[in-house]
Amino acid sequence: MRARTIPIPPAPSSALEYLTTKKDELVGWARKFSLFPYPFVTACCAMEFMAVSSTPYDTDRFGAALPRFSPRQSDLLMVVGTLTHKQAPILRKVYEQMCEPKWVMAFGACATSGGFYQNYAAVAGIDKIIPVDIYVPGCPPRPETVIDGIMKLQDMIARSRHPIFTEEF
Amino acid sequence: MTPGVLDTLKERLAGEVADASVSHGMLVLVLAPADLLGIVQRLESEFRFDLFLDVTAVDWPGQTPRFEVVYHFYSTAHRIRVRLKTRVPEADPAVESLVPLYGSAHYMERECHDMYGIVFRGNPDLRPILLYEGFVGHPLRKDYPKRQEQPLVPYRS
């Protein structure tokens, strides 16, 4: 019995069948729309975080709507509120548990610089503990400011290099 | 607020404490540290002050004795409050613990010990509650430097 071959349809002559792009641009485009935030919420900024997560502001437009409550599944660490010295080891551990690539947002004045706290209890900015990619000012920041921060972070992700093999690989 | 009860209480306790006055509708008793446990026991059993609201301290730098330990109690039966003040010296800032009388004293005394270094004799567990192990000093004392931090995680350089 003769083997039958399935005929391959001829290539259509329409446009956009092939796409050429740079790997970094493609990966960056994909990554900037799939930010899974991990909310590290410690203080009153949480109220604004709830507002920005709510329907009227719709962060799903930026692919950043689905909070993951495990640092291992998330790639955007949002530090929302004051960080105390007692909590600093926990933040450090959460950050170290996140897989690369990862980004950190300092949400509000306290996470950015300690805000008005300059005392024995508060860390004057989370960047003393972990590296920060985007600072969102305000006490607390308005939802529009947070969205602006997310968009600036997206621009940053789109512009940066995305190596597939790193030195640690 | 029952002013009658307050005055009766003041009259009955005035002889046993250093000073008794009414301030903002609250009875204020100033007493020696040695009398503390006896007075609190009477307040609890005789006058039905069943709720221990708080214990804190005031640091008066330059004065002797330096620390003033302040207690607040509330009577749910009479709906009145009483404030107790007692002074302890810097060399031995110790008062008797109220844990045998009020279970809630346990945590509040730990906090006061954290912040002011007041020692509550008889409290079984004075480990740090708001601060952390290894913290040196007592941050709410007036001689604690305002901006001195004691980080648990080394700072990024």
List the helices and strands and how they pair.
The complex is a heterodimer of chains A (169) and B (157).
Chain A: H1 23-32, E1 37-41, H2 45-53, E2 76-80, H3 88-97, E3 103-107, H4 109-113, E4 134-136, H5 143-159
Parallel strand pairs in A: 1-2, 2-3, 3-4
Chain B: H1 3-13, E1 19-23, E2 26-30, H2 36-45, E3 51-59, E4 67-75, E5 80-88, E6 94-96, H3 105-116, E7 119-121
Parallel strand pairs in B: 2-5, 6-7
Antiparallel strand pairs in B: 1-2, 3-4, 4-5
Keywords:
heterodimer; A: 169 residues; alpha/beta; Rossmann fold; four-stranded parallel β-sheet; 4 strands; 30% helix; B: 157 residues; Beta Polymerase, domain 2; five-stranded mixed β-sheet; two-stranded parallel sheet; 3 helices; 21% helix; 27% strand
Considering residues with a beta carbon less than 8 A from a beta carbon on another chain, report the largest interface and each chain's count: A-B, 16 and 14 residues
Average pLDDT of chain B works out at 89
Radius of gyration of chain B equals 17 Å
Q: Total helix count of chain B? A: 3
Strand numbers in spatial order across the main sheet of chain B? 1-2-5-4-3
How would you describe this protein?
The complex is a heterodimer of chains A (169) and B (157). With 169 residues, chain A is of the alpha/beta class. Chain A has a single domain (35-159), classed as Rossmann fold (3-Layer(aba) Sandwich), CATH 3.40.50.12280. In chain A, 30% of the residues lie in helices and 11% in strands. Chain A has five helices and four strands, in the order αβαβαβαβα. Chain A has helices spanning 23-32, 45-53, 88-97, 109-113, 143-159; strands at residues 37-41, 76-80, 103-107, 134-136. In chain A, strand 2, helix 3 and strand 3 form a beta-alpha-beta unit. In chain A, helix 1 packs antiparallel against helix 5 (143-159) and helix 2 (45-53) crosses helix 5 (143-159). The longest helix of chain A has 17 residues, at 143-159. The mean pLDDT of chain A is 88. Chain B is α/β, with parallel strands linked by helices and 157 residues long. Chain B has a single domain (5-121), classed as NADH:ubiquinone oxidoreductase Nqo5 subunit (Beta Polymerase, domain 2, 2-Layer Sandwich). Chain B contains three helices and seven strands; from the N terminus they run αββαββββαβ. In chain B, a hairpin with a 7-residue loop joins strand 3 (51-59) and strand 4 (67-75). Chain B is elongated and about 65 Å long. The model of chain B has no long low-confidence stretch (mean pLDDT 89). The chains are: A alpha/beta (169), B alpha/beta (157).
